[in-house]
Q: What sequence folds into this?
């Protein structure tokens, strides 16, 4: 499934590295992941979520707050030979995906390091969702959870008949939290970039909703793991004294077939 980021030839998995026929080699880190971010597209510079954001997400997810979403995603994802999690983060959802070969890709090295250390069943790769180190038409099933969607790149890597499930916030997602952060709330837009993309057909649409009753540390982890941390001025300070919060989690799950 994986392609060399330098020459696009197939990569073969060796005990301690990945290599292509042209002699390019990529060492596996101690935790087991591989860095395949094209040097010409940013190389070893820090990208994506930082350590603090990733650690907050790991704590929040391992506490089980989003477990209903994880279970719903696992039921939707078909067991397939080649499965790709685009924007896998620290691997919580990747670990629920059935498949013979499961690969998680994220641009954040701290996230991929945590994922590889915990979830040994999958192979985790540092790479960009916009320039996947993946062979053409080599993926049977893909998932994208709260990450950017690049239709042309998905069309390239998915085989005809392959599927991609995209998870985005539902209209009322975290209304109780957003009331603390925003003066005026606007419902989340449930449009997906694949809605009007050539070569993709919607085959399933679901909503998953459940209540959250969070203590103060969980509230701060929730803010710390989301874009609110950066998009809202003093977001963490605004919830610093919150002892308890009840809010609704709402997700839209859309599945598309590659025609």
A:
């Amino acid at each position: 499934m994986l392609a060399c980021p330098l020459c696009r030839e197939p990569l073969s998995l060796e005990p301690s590295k990945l290599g292509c026929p042209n002699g390019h080699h990529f060492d596996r880190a101690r935790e087991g992941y591989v860095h395949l971010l094209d040097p010409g597209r940013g190389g070893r510079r820090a990208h994506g979520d930082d350590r603090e954001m990733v650690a907050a997400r790991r704590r929040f997810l391992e506490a089980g707050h989003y477990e209903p979403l994880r279970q719903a995603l696992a039921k939707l994802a078909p067991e397939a030979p080649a499965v790709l999690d685009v924007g896998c983060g620290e691997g919580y959802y990747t670990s629920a995906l059935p498949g013979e070969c499961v690969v998680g890709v994220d641009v954040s090295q701290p996230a991929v390091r945590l994922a590889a250390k915990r979830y040994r069943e999958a192979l985790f790769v540092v790479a960009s969702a916009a320039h996947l180190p993946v062979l053409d038409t080599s993926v049977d099933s893909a998932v994208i959870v709260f990450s950017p969607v690049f239709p042309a790149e998905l069309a390239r890597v998915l085989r005809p008949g392959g599927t991609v499930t995209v998870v985005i916030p539902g209209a009322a997602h975290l209304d109780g939290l957003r009331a603390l952060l925003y003066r005026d709330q606007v419902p989340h837009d449930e449009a997906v970039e694949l809605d009007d993309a050539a070569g993709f057909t919607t085959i399933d649409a679901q909503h998953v909703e459940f209540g959250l009753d969070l203590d103060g540390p969980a509230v701060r982890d929730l803010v710390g793991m989301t874009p609110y941390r950066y998009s809202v001025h003093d977001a963490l300070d605004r919830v610093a004294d919150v002892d308890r919060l009840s809010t609704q989690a709402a997700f839209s799950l859309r599945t598309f077939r590659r025609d």
Notes: The two ends are 20 Å apart (CA to CA). The longest helix spans residues 51-62. The chain is about 25% helix and 30% strand.
